[in-house]
Specification:
Layout lengths: L3 E2 L22 E2 L1 E9 L4 H14 L4 E6 L8 E9 L12 E4 L5 H6 L6 E5 L12 E5 L1 H8 L5 H5 L2 H11 L3 H11 L4 H21 L6 E2 L10 E4 H11 L4 E4 L6 H14 L11 E4 L3 H13 L4 E5 L1 H17 L3 E9 L5 E5 L4 H5 L9 E3 L4 H18 L2 E7 H5 L1 E4 L17 H7 L44 H18 L7 E3 L1 E2 L3 E6 L3 H13 L4 E6 L1 E2 L3 H8 L3 E6 L5 H9 L7 E5 L8 H12 L8 E4 L6 E4 L31 E2 L4
Parallel strand pairs: 2-9, 3-6, 6-7, 7-8, 11-12, 11-13, 13-14, 14-17, 16-17, 21-22, 21-24, 24-25
Antiparallel strand pairs: 1-8, 3-5, 4-5, 10-18, 14-15, 16-23, 19-22, 19-28, 20-26, 26-27
Helix pairs in contact: 1-5, 1-6, 3-7, 5-7, 6-7, 8-9, 8-13, 10-11, 17-20
Keywords: Oxidoreductase
Pfam family, one: POR_N
GO biological process, one term: response to oxidative stress
Length: 675
């Protein structure tokens, strides 16, 4: 096959009409996707992260998604990088540029390219499938390694830097940006960076001399990421926990939650040491299993520590009995569930929202649990510390449900705000308080279902109590009396109702007169935001309510009542959130319809658009107006379009008329109770 360009393709055709901005000369700048196909365990993550971070530092909005197998080494892995000048971060269903460095999957990978796509591949391969509508670039990897002077096992791990250098030339990524990115990734280790850059430069210079960039895709500097940060959701969660005052964590390793504790260990080592002695003022324990881990944090919570664990679905299954103890004995704890695909072992390295129903009711008997539902890095951080305040205030385990996509992939964000309020420890009595007012551990003195508690170390003789998982009266004395049981369960229900006013309210973006409502949560947000803009471009108006927590409050029922149809969009098979909403809001349940997808991949805007259009079945629409801002300060914007809706018309076209509005929802969201 030889080196260099193999076959020139016809002009690129956008696989997604709503994506891409073509210049007058046909060049598509900062609006396309790249997929890198390699084998797991070959060191490709560093190469991929170097490209992602270099683009980010060029000011281009980007998002990276690692689609990796559940093994240590050898199986196929794909890394998706999306560039979007408009800042969209959802996964796209196709990528225009393929880096084919896995011979095992090259046949299927090339078939995924749209017409006009390009393919970089290892020139050392003997053959590669041919398509007349794809441009091929052969990259002589072994030649680059030889010319860079790399030897031994190091050369195997640096071979992926060959495609970094070639791609940098073809897309016009400055080498200094790649150098900066590697310096960040290797924490300032100049020697390691130089080894990687040696291969990058050889590949770049070879590409400049031998490859003709016969394709329309280019990058150019922008200013859209200035002041932003990039990290994973698991890192943001760990940092939030530090600001929330965590002093104890117990865990057992499980994908995709392990990096929560890895990051937590790093942050605590920097920020939680006695200034006089340098000794750690925290403890992180790797338990023998998830059952032991949750038992440890329940015990630590009883003792007054702010305690947490991080796990995924199989770990949650093992924790069920202890969670019930925490609920009934009323012990604060924080449990992060980074969701993956189940049931059973399932797909351990793919994303899902499959634990919502399970965690909401986790524990035998009548139990309901408080759940926080982050959708962004900022909310991972905010909920990271807020969860401890809620757990202490409500004296109960609090779940935070993230997922693999948010937790393990890199996202952009505004810098986090330093928490403005002190830690909220809830109703904790001192010895003086007990002396003044007495103490009955499970007595509801305030009518909100939340009793007062004492902590070990309180020296008043009446402060001690049994945190019972067995039947008890309001003084924590063992009891099997029916009235004691009935009263205690009624009080726990009142406490859960109190939680409705304490958890974060939903975020609402409502279009006046829109008949279509959408309810969603978590990482479906990027795809839904983009899909709504596409629908608006065709004059199809939608309103969105994004849940940030369970239990729900009255805003949710009112939102549903204001719309003829409300689609509940989520990443599971059975529409689990819809099940909860139907159970709790029977008067509006008939307006709800589930749009659920579970294939292990993050949602795309295309799927959301097509799912809504198919469900609508060509119903006529009028062109409504969008309410912007709070109810008091609302302004109306005319939306274009004739209001028609054609099922099967894959993707909407046209000018959305929303160029002055933030596609990512920051400018148009109204937080219920805050707007």
């Amino acid at each position: 096959m030889g080196n260099g360009m193999i076959k020139e393709a016809p002009p690129a055709q956008q696989s997604d009409p709503a994506d891409g901005l073509s210049a007058n000369d046909g060049t598509i700048v900062n609006d396309f996707s790249i997929v890198v196909a390699t084998a797991n365990g070959t060191g490709s993550q560093t190469a991929n992260m170097a490209i992602l971070r270099a683009l980010f530092k060029m000011g281009i909005p980007v998002n990276g998604k690692n689609i990796f197998p559940s093994n240590i080494q050898g199986l196929p892995t794909w890394y998706h990088i999306r560039l979007s000048k408009d800042g969209y971060t959802a996964r796209r269903h196709t990528s225009e540029i393929l880096v084919a460095f896995n011979q095992t999957t090259v046949v299927q990978d090339i078939q995924t390219l749209p017409p006009g796509g390009i393919c970089l591949y290892n020139a050392d391969w003997r053959s590669i499938p041919q398509r007349d509508d794809v441009t091929y670039y052969a990259v002589p990897v072994n030649e680059f390694i030889r010319d860079s002077g790399m030897k031994g096992k190091l050369k195997d791990y640096l071979s992926n830097m060959a495609y970094v250098g070639a791609l940098a030339h073809l897309l016009a990524i400055p080498l200094e940006r790649l150098d900066d990115a590697l310096l960040f990734l290797f924490k300032g280790k100049r020697r390691t960076v130089d080894s990687n850059m040696a291969v990058v430069r050889v590949a770049y210079e070879w590409a400049a001399a031998n490859l003709t960039a016969a394709h329309p895709y280019r990058v150019a500097p922008m200013n859209e990421t200035e002041g932003l940060i990039m990290m994973t959701g698991n890192e943001a969660a760990a940092l939030g926990a530090v600001f929330g005052g965590v002093t104890f964590a117990a865990w057992y390793p499980i994908t995709p939650s392990t990096s929560v504790i890895d990051a937590l260990n790093g942050y605590l080592a920097q920020m939680r040491r006695d200034p006089a002695t340098g000794e750690a003022t925290y403890a992180v324990v790797q338990a023998e299993d998830e059952l032991a881990a949750v038992g440890m944090i329940i015990g630590a919570g009883f003792a007054g520590a702010r305690a947490m664990t991080a796990t995924s679905g199989p770990g949650i299954s093992l924790m069920a009995e202890y969670v019930g103890l925490g609920y009934f004995a009323e012990v604060p704890a924080v449990i992060w569930d980074i969701q993956r695909v189940g049931p059973s072992t399932g797909l351990p390295t793919r994303t899902s929202q499959g634990d919502v129903l399970f965690t909401y009711y986790l524990g035998h008997g009548d139990t309901k649990n408080v759940i926080l539902l982050p959708s962004s890095l900022r909310e991972c951080f905010d909920f990271g510390y807020m969860a401890f305040d809620l757990a202490d205030t409500l004296q109960t385990p609090v779940f935070v449900l993230s997922d693999l996509d948010l937790g393990m992939n890199n996202w952009m964000s505004e810098p986090f705000d330093y928490p403005a309020e002190p830690l909220k420890r809830g109703k904790v009595l001192s010895a003086a308080d007990v002396a003044e007012r007495g103490f009955a551990r499970y007595r509801d003195l305030d009518g909100d279902g939340i009793p007062y508690r004492t902590l070990p170390g309180n020296e008043h003789p009446l402060a001690a109590y049994f945190a019972r998982g067995t039947g008890h009266n309001d003084a924590a004395v063992y009891s099997e009396r029916p009235d004691d049981w009935r009263n205690n369960m009624a009080r726990l229900a009142r406490k859960f109702d109190t939680a409705r006013s304490l958890v974060p309210g939903p975020v609402i973006d409502e279009v006046e007169g829109a008949e279509i409502g959408i309810i969603a949560y978590g990482t479906t947000r990027p795809a839904i935001d983009e899909a709504r803009d596409r629908l608006a471009a065709d004059g199809i108006a939608t309103s969105l309510l994004r849940l940030r927590a369970l239990p729900i409050n009255g805003e949710v029922e009112a939102f549903i009542a204001r719309h003829e149809r409300v689609y509940v969009i989520e990443m599971n098979r059975d529409g689990q959130l819809q099940t909860i909403l139907r159970a709790e809001l029977p008067e509006v349940a008939t307006r709800l319809e589930s749009l659920a997808l579970l294939d292990g991949m993050p949602l795309t805007a295309r799927w959301v658009v097509e799912a809504i259009m198919a469900a609508e079945q060509d119903r006529p629409r009028r062109a409504p107006t969008r309410r912007e801002g709070s109810a008091e300060g609302a302004t109306e914007l005319d939306l274009p379009g004739d209001g028609s809706l054609s099922p099967g018309n894959g993707l909407p076209r046209g000018d959305s008329g929303l160029t002055d509005m933030g596609h990512d929802g920051h400018n148009r969201e109204v937080i219920a109770g805050e707007g």
